[in-house]
Structures are given as C-alpha cells and as structure tokens.
Write a structure and sequence with these properties.
Blueprint lengths: L4 E4 L3 H14 L3 E5 L12 E5 L6 H13 L7 E5 L2 H9 L1 H4 L3 E2 L5 H8 L1 H7 L10 E5 L16 E5 L2 H4 L11 E3 L2 H13 L5 E6 L8 E8 L5 E5 L1 E6 L9 E6 L7 H15 L3 E10 L4 E8 L8 H4 L4 H9 L8 E3 L3 E4 L3 H7 L3 H12 L3 E2 L10 H20 L5
Parallel strand pairs: 1-2, 1-4, 2-3, 4-5, 11-16, 17-18
Antiparallel strand pairs: 6-9, 7-8, 7-9, 10-11, 10-12, 10-14, 12-13, 13-17, 14-15
Length: about 400
C-alpha cells in the first residue's frame, strides 16, 4: 500500500517538492494552497485546490479535514508544509488533524522560537551558535528609543515576526532593511510602526562581505531527533529586489572558500540534537572575516526555497520524509560534500553579477560540466504555459539585476 502525500502552499518550495514527488512516483502530487502563484499555477506536475481562507485557523482546519476524510482509504496522508504560515497552523492544530495526517516537523515550541526572531536570538545566545550583535525594538511603544551609539554602521533591520510583518504593507517595504545612519535607522523603524506592525524589530550590526559570504546549510532530522543528512553550500548570488533580498539564486554545495566546513556542520548538528529537532530545517549563515566564524542569521523550520539541490545530489526530500514516517527507516548521518551548482538564473547573470572572481569561475566551470540544476526547469513538466513562464522569467532576471544594484 502506498500512502498519500499532500503539499501545502504554491510557491517555489512547493514546485520543487512536487518535482521530488514526480521523480519518485512519476505522477503529479496533490497541493492545497491559498491562491495561484506563477511557480505552480500552470504546472502539469501538481493537482492544486485553492482555499482563499487557508491561512486562517478555521479555514486551515476545514480544508485539511475535508481533504483528509476523502483520502483515508490508504491510511493517513503525509502532509508537508512549505511555508512558515502552514508550519505554524499545522502544529497549532495537531489534535484536530491527527486522525487524517502524519508529518515530520519540529515541536510547536521549537518552531515558535525559530519563527520569532527575538525569542530565537535570546533563547539560543549561549547555545554555541554565533550571532551578530543584536538589539530589539518593540513597535508597540509610542517612542522609538535611540540607536545605541556604540553600534557600528551599517545596521540590518528585520522583523522579529515575519508572518505578522507581511500582513502590514507600506510603500517600498523590504524583506530586510540596511540602515547606513542613525537617522536612517530610526526613520525606517517609524515607518514600520506606522504600518500597524506592533511586534519586535531586530537591529543587528552588518557582517561585512558580498553575497559570496553567505552560506546555506540544510539538515534532515528523523522523527526521533537523529540528524541523518546535511549540506553546506556557499552562496554566490541572492535576489537583489527589496522584497527578495535573502532569497538565494546561486549556490554551490560542497564549496567553501573559508574552510571549517566539517567543524561548522558539527556545531549545527550538535545544536539540533540538543534541542531534539525533527524534520527539515535550513540555516542561513554569513561568514565573518573579522573573527573567522560563521554567524547564524536565522533558521527556517522547514526545507527552504533553494533546497532542491539535495535531491539533485541523489537525496530525494520526499523519500526521506516518507520512509521515515511510514517505514521507520533509520539512516546513518551523511554530509553531502560533492561540488554541485544550483542556479535559478541564466549563466550570463552569474558571469555579470557574481562579484567574487574565484567563486564565479567555479560556478561557470560546474555549469560547463553539467553539474548544475535549476529547480524550475523540469523536463517532465510539459505544461506549455509553464515553459513560457520560464522563458519570461529568465528575461526578467536580466532586468531585475540591472535595475537593482543594492544587496546586503
């Protein structure tokens, strides 16, 4: 008997997880989403049903309960949340949905800490992980306190609660803001407060370096809290639009110009084991040349938008989840060390916009050797509109990088 699988969401994360499913079973996967998004809207590898109120507690429970009841013939369904909102909703409604679904995600108390950046930095300040200097601004307070005079500029300002921040829109709203002066910082904080956001803002000293100082590390920990799989990839390029900053577009697994890969992975692995983490997670890190450490920017309590490269290296993400929750399969820990390029942009974008010369040459070398993958470019997805979207997307990337020079 084969159990059913359903994905939650409709973004890039969902698309490549659907690709993993198709590569394993040669058929489309079911998806439940709030609204159409171009990554999956016209794809032939997904069967999507839309529920506009899916991001509300009641709408989420109703939609999943209805789906679960209709798919009990083969036992409970493996549900995979592909967005922070759905991770939280799934964990908060575990009791109501337990009869219909199984999953491997972290415990609710851990996920809540990861999703609330203030709790995250304060809870794990003595955990062995390294962080940049951090201050906290309560946006519910009327007065904005001055930036500490001994903080070095530029500063990074980001929401403590990203889910709540995205509910309060304002003109030019960035995912992360880079402040160059005290006035610049205070003005931005006041703009966020005026939007109606009342949670915490995180203010951190900027870690110097371009995009190639950023790193991506993905882990899978089985349902018993044992780490089974890890990667450590150096990023070469991220999105440069205000809303896209922080999203990787080019990375190389198994490549690290700064060393200490295994040492750093062991630190991350020990951290996850200590807190009893379960499921996929992604560490966003940045190498700090000043003290030779990899500082953790955040941890996502799920697979991230760029995590398909694990599957391209022979480790299908659906397989790990399925065989763990249904078959109780246990695997020895493995660090994926093969050099492999993930690129969501055309080759000329790498050539023209990756600043790190040595990194750029390595990326182009892997491209020539066909040791590369674009998660969206899947030959088995024969939907005409999806293929047109990929062509237009490649053209648009040239405009995006030309018109958006700024990065963090």
């Amino acid at each position: 008997m084969r159990h059913n699988v359903v994905l939650l969401g409709s973004d890039l994360n969902v698309y490549y997880m659907a690709r993993c499913f198709y590569e394993k079973y040669d058929e489309p996967v079911d998806v439940i989403a709030t609204e159409p998004i171009r990554f999956t809207q016209h794809s032939s590898i997904v069967n999507i049903e839309y529920h506009p109120d899916l991001k509300t507690n009641e709408g989420f429970v109703n939609a999943l309960t209805e789906y679960g009841k209709n798919h009990l013939e083969n036992g409970r369904t493996l549900v995979i949340p592909c967005h922070d909102v759905y991770v939280r909703l799934l964990l908060e409604n575990h009791e109501a949905l337990d009869h219909y679904f199984v999953y491997n995600c972290p415990k609710l108390e851990i996920a809540e800490i990861f999703l609330d950046k203030e709790k995250f930095y304060k809870t794990f300040k003595d955990s062995g992980l390294s962080f940049a200097r951090t201050e906290y601004y309560d946006c519910s307070e009327k007065e904005t306190k001055p930036i500490p005079v001994d903080m070095y500029y530029p500063l990074i300002i980001k929401p403590g609660d990203g889910i709540e921040y995205n509910k309060h829109h304002f003109e030019g709203q960035p995912k992360v803001f880079k402040a160059t002066t005290p006035d610049n910082a205070v003005n931005f904080i006041n703009k966020v407060k005026a939007s109606g956001y009342t949670k915490t803002l995180i203010v951190q000293e900027f870690i110097p370096g371009d995009d190639s100082c950023l790193f991506d590390s993905v882990f899978y920990c089985n349902k018993n809290g044992k780490p089974e799989l890890a990667t450590f990839a150096q990023i070469g390029l991220q999105e440069h639009t205000p809303s896209g900053i922080g999203n990787c577009t080019v990375l190389i697994n198994g490549y690290n110009q700064y060393g200490k890969t295994k040492e750093t992975v062991e630190i991350l692995k020990a951290f996850l084991e200590k807190i009893g983490y379960t499921g996929f997670c992604e560490f966003d890190l940045k190498y700090d040349r000043r003290d030779g450490t990899f500082k953790v920017l955040e941890i996502n309590p799920r697979q991230a938008r760029s995590s398909y490269y694990l599957a391209a290296l022979g480790h299908n993400l659906i397989t790990y989840l399925y065989e763990d929750v249904f078959n109780n399969e246990v695997r020895d820990f493995k660090l994926l060390e093969e050099e492999f390029l993930l690129s969501m942009v055309p080759k000329n974008i790498i050539r023209d916009y990756v600043k790190n010369e040595e990194y750029r040459e390595k990326a182009l070398e892997l491209w020539r050797k066909h040791k590369k993958v674009d998660p969206l470019n899947f030959k088995q997805d024969r939907a005409f509109k999806h293929r047109v979207y990929l062509k237009l997307r490649a053209i648009n990337y040239k405009k995006k990088y030309k018109n958006n020079k700024n990065t963090i």
